[in-house]
Amino acid sequence: MSSLIKRLVSIAPMMEHTDKHFRYLIRCISKHSLLFTEMITSAAIINGDHKKLLSFNVVEHPIAVQIGGRDIEEILSASLIAESYGYDEINLNIGCPSSSVQNGGFGACLMLDKKHVGDIVHTLSNNVKIPISIKCRIGVDDLDTYSFLYDFIKEVSSSRCNIFYVHARKALLSGVSPRDNRRIPKLDYDRVYKLKQDFPHLEIILNGGVNSLENYSDIINHVDGVMIGRTAYKNPYILSDVDSHIYNSPGLVDSIKGIACQYLDYVSQQRITKLFHLTKHMQGLWYGRQNAAVFRRLVTEPSCTVKQIQEFIAKAN
Ligand SMILES: Cc1cc2nc3c(=O)[nH]c(=O)nc-3n(C[C@H](O)[C@H](O)[C@H](O)COP(=O)(O)O)c2cc1C
Predict the structure, then answer these.
(1) 1: pLDDT strictly greater than 50
(2) Are residues 182 and 302 in the same domain?
(3) Are 111 and 136 in contact (CB under 8 A)?
(4) Is 96 a catalytic residue?
(5) Are 280 and 300 within 8 A, CB to CB?
(6) Which residues of 44-78 are buried (b: 16+ CB within 10 A; e: fewer)?
(7) pLDDT reported for residue 254
(8) Residue nearest to atom 2 of ligand 1 (CA)
(9) 3 pLDDT band (50/70/90 cuts)?
């Protein structure tokens, strides 16, 4: 399975967004996009309820688990546990700038220690059978030259990592919230394109600001794939052409209403009291259509019921 993954389109890891329920919704729209879990720390996998953290639905394949951590042995143990759950790829978070992640010495600040990242990758690639990948930024604070990025990729790839998801903006480690860290530093696609020119043997996937399939067509001339974050949550139906247009496979036959009904069937089957934790992921489904705001309010309301959503769908154009 793992060697067959086509990373033409990936759905970015997003905390509190890309849980298994949202991923199921995406699977109702695109069968081939590569899905990612939210970041899970290696400590949480080892010390917490890993069944709760790692279990997923078989329809979610291909799926990568994103791990955040610093300690090599701990990351290895967590990766072996994740591998045993059947994930298709282990991805290391080397891009998160949040202060809690910095306090743990991982995320974007690990870009400042390429040797350590290389050591993590080396250990994993010797012990884990599924592919290991990195998600990183193009720089950190003032270390934002192309040669800094080049040296990082060179060191880490020489430790047998061949797959890099590169968020095309640098990380600012202080004075800016994680939210603003996805907005304020400028996107620089040319940096990522140059990486692919300089490392043609590596799989380089561009992330940041990809919000349409037209966008995709330009970018894919330069790199191996795109990773889509916020747009996939805000307007998931945008992925409806991915299978037919990008993966050349039979496309989606369902309308937005059909997808909503399919997801509601899934929601109804879950034994969960707070259904709104599942229905909230539908909030972008009506994006750009009549009554989008009404729908969003309805599905994010804690008291929302499946019946109310079915009634909305029945009346919708
Ligand atoms: C709510 C939210 C949570 C995020 N959580 C993670 C995460 O857990 N791991 C990670 O590597 N990136 C995380 N990111 C960053 C995204 O993966 C992505 O790199 C970023 O949003 C840029 O892509 P976009 O412009 O397509 O949204 C998060 C982004 C958002 C909006």
Answers:
(1) no
(2) no
(3) yes
(4) yes
(5) yes
(6) bbbeeebeebbebeeebbbbbbbbbbbbbebbbbb
(7) 79
(8) 14
(9) low
219 and 266 fall within a common domain = no
Q: Are residues 273 and 228 in the same domain?
A: no
* Per-residue model confidence (pLDDT) at position 8: 97
Would you say 164 and 153 are in contact if contact means Cβ atoms under 8 Å apart?
A: yes
CATH number at residue 222: 3.20.20.70
Nearest to residue 64, comparing CAs of 38, 31, 26?
A: 38
Query: pLDDT per residue over 280-317, tens digit each?
Result: 999 999 999 999 999 999 999 999 999 999 999 999 98
- Identify the residue whose C-alpha is closest to ligand 1 atom 19: 167
Q: In the prediction, which pLDDT does 16 show?
A: 96
Instruction: Tell me which of 217, 246, 275 is where a domain ends.
Output: 246
Per-residue pLDDT, 58: 97
Residue nearest to atom 18 of ligand 1 (CA): 229
Range of the domain at 93: 2-246
Asked whether residue 167 falls in the same domain as residue 279, the answer is no
> Is 251 inside a domain boundary?
no
Rounded Cα gap, residues 229 and 182, in angstroms: 10
Residue 308 CA to ligand 1 centre (angstroms) = 31
Contact residues of ligand 1, CB 6 A cut-off: 12-15, 17, 38-39, 66, 93, 95-96, 135, 167, 182, 207-210, 228-231
pLDDT tens track for 258-287: 999 999 999 999 988 889 999 999 999 999
Q: How far is the CA of 13 from the centre of ligand 1 (A)?
A: 6
93 Cα–ligand 1 center, Å: 11
Whether residues 104 and 187 fall in one domain: yes
- Claim to verify: residue 97 and residue 233 sit in the same structural domain: yes
Q: Give the SS3 label for residue 284.
A: coil
| pLDDT, tens digit (0-9, with 9 covering 90-100), for 201-217 | 999 999 999 999 888 98
Catalytic pick among 28, 96, 136, 161: 96
Residue nearest atom 31 in ligand 1 by C-alpha distance: 230
* Distance in Å, CA 40 to ligand 1 centroid: 13
218 burial type by CB count under 10 A (0-12 exposed, 13-18 middle, 19+ buried): exposed
Task: Please give the pLDDT value at position 2.
Answer: 41
Residues 100 and 222 in one domain: yes
